[in-house]
Amino acid sequence: MRETENIKVLIAGAGPAGLACAIRLKRKLNSLARNESVVVIDKASKLGYHNLSGAVFETACLDELIPGWQEENNSILSQMVKIEKDELYHLTSKHAIRFPSFLVPKSMRHQGDYSISASKLVAWLGAVAEKEGVEIYPGYAGNRLVMDQGRVRGVKLADSGRNSDGKPKENYLEGETIHAPITVLSDGSRGVLSRQFTDMFPNGSNPQVYSVGVKQLVQLPKNNPFGNDRAVHTLGYPLKSDVFGGGFLYSMGNDLVAVGMILGLDWKYKDLNPQGELEVFKSHPFIASLLDGGTVLSAGVKTIPEGGFYSLPRLFQDGAVLIGDAAGFVNMEKIKGLHNAVRSGIASADAIFEAILEDDFSAETLQKYSQNLAANRVMKEMYHARNFRQVFRWGTYLGAPLSRIQHLLPFKLGLEQDFVSTKDRAELKRNYEGMMDKATFTGLSGTTHREDEPSHIRIRDPKICKKCIGRYDTPPCVHLCPGQVYRVKDEQIILSASNCMHDGSCVVKCPYQNISWEVPESGEGPQYKQM
User: Fold this and answer.
1) How far is the C-alpha of 264 from the C-alpha of 287, rounded, in Å?
2) 382 and 397 share a domain?
3) Helix (H, G, I), strand (E, B), or coil: what is residue 464?
4) What is the pairing mode between strands 151-157 and 320-322?
5) In CATH, what number is assigned to the domain containing residue 507?
6) Which tens digit of pLDDT belongs to each residue from 21-43?
7) Are residues 213 and 323 in the same domain?
């Protein structure tokens, strides 16, 4: 990396938001023949490896970011699939009942959108950014914000080369400290740096809440019944009516289909297993008929910030702005967030550009970011969906009709943190035998960590875990983690941190908030090549 004192703009996180910010900002600087450096760091070993989404994408944001993007050589357009058939079903245990199109809210219609791999989108945006002169450094994991009297001054990277006891080995390298006048926090849902920022500068009147998304990419045989231009969303089976969420299947081209489930982490069931629920979903007669003969190529998991408008944190502070999933710009009314991530990147870049011209990176100058978000429709969308997630706290059957009118309510509905909802005696008692297990799922994610490094997952107080075991028998973290990171032995929690897929759902859902998560050594974790 270049000498850190020469870095003007540091972007922590090479997702759609961070790269959109980098592209927009560097283009504006280039237009004035200015040479301020724009540097992007990311904890993944390659661009896109830690990016996962459904994903159905509204591409109009790219028209603003990269005019003419559809005509460029090697355009990402060739890796997208335009959705021509858009269907919503309610599943019972044996049947699939299709909703007539006139009953489907406009916000939930996806015809004309594009299905896309978030991993490939990020790789393409990275290539565009580098052509503009942006410096991108994969494998640089930010571990701590550098602060000075309430101002963000940069990022401290994670150390590498320690043994499992935390002692330096022969190849030990202390994490570098990167200073910059302005730091853009775009490290995604549950990002370590953005969580530090929001803990220091809270703002939302509601707490942030999350869903967990589990996804697989399935190769179907030729002449399969699903087709190559279709999006299917489902409500109902296998989820109980008091569990927010549903299933999806998206054409990905070349007889590939993305299949997954989104489940609100405010479920009450102590034994709910999201990875297992995906397998049950795939076994439904209707879904199984669409996937008949398919082979699972890859798998992954992530959390989705879904609290909406009233859960948005402070978005700027002296020396820093917060963008994308790190800020919570997911519109659950649309079940989409990629377009808002890109637009938040654009809005932040325009504010930072003006700050560079004025050589003033104070919160007072950076408040232009909020004005830009209002002007480019991000805040309009978020405000329209402001009570969407809240109405489902009364279950699907009441929440679904209320979601049609939630934007008319003249008041804010509250939310509780997800871990509050878990009940001692509420059980699904689901049998997942004979289905894909967690070890296979983890293997399909490509997850790797050095076995003898310090665990990046920590139990704050083992005594509390013992209390949790006594209360739940098998604690919720053991059931919900798709990577089998947690197991019980001799009334203790045993960690297998090398299996971790970096979703953070365990931290969100722990009933005693007794788990902490830090970044592991740079470059480790899942390897999502086309998720």
Assistant:
1) 21
2) no
3) helix
4) unpaired
5) 3.30.70.20
6) 999 999 999 999 999 999 999 99
7) no
Same domain? 136 vs 179: yes
What CA–CA distance (Å, rounded) separates 236 from 521?
40
Structural tokens at position 236: 């109902």
Q: Which domain holds residue 279?
A: 82-116+209-305
Same domain, 8 and 147: yes
Tokens at residue 61, please?
């944001």
Q: How many whole angstroms separate alpha carbon 225 and alpha carbon 466? A: 50
Instruction: Report yes or no on 334 lying in a domain.
Output: yes
E-only strand ranges, 159-255: 160-162, 168-173, 177-179, 182-185, 210-219, 230-236, 245-253
Specify whether 293 is located in the same domain as 363.
no
Give the tokens for residue 32: 């004035």
Cα–Cα distance measured from residue 89 to residue 14, given in angstroms and rounded to the nearest whole number:
35
Assess whether 283 and 228 both reside in one domain: yes
Distance of CA 375 to the CA centre of its chain: 25
In a shared domain, residues 61 and 141 = yes
Q: What is the DSSP code string of 436-448?
A: --HHHHHHHTT-B
Same domain, 59 and 193: yes
Q: pLDDT tens across 354-363, in order?
A: 999 999 999 9
What's the pTM value of the predicted model, to 2 decimals?
A: 0.96
525 within some domain: no
Helix/strand/coil for 339: helix
Q: Is 474 helix (H, G, I), strand (E, B) or coil?
A: coil
Does a structural domain hold residue 75? no
For residue 431 the two structure tokens come to: 């049998």
> Tell me, what amino acid is at 27?
R
User: What is the C-alpha to C-alpha distance for residues 386 and 389, in angstroms, rounded to an integer?
Assistant: 8
By DSSP bridging, strand 38-42 and strand 135-138 are parallel
The count of domains in the chain is: 4
The per-residue pLDDT for range 278-312, each reduced to its tens digit, is 999 999 999 999 999 999 999 999 999 999 999 99
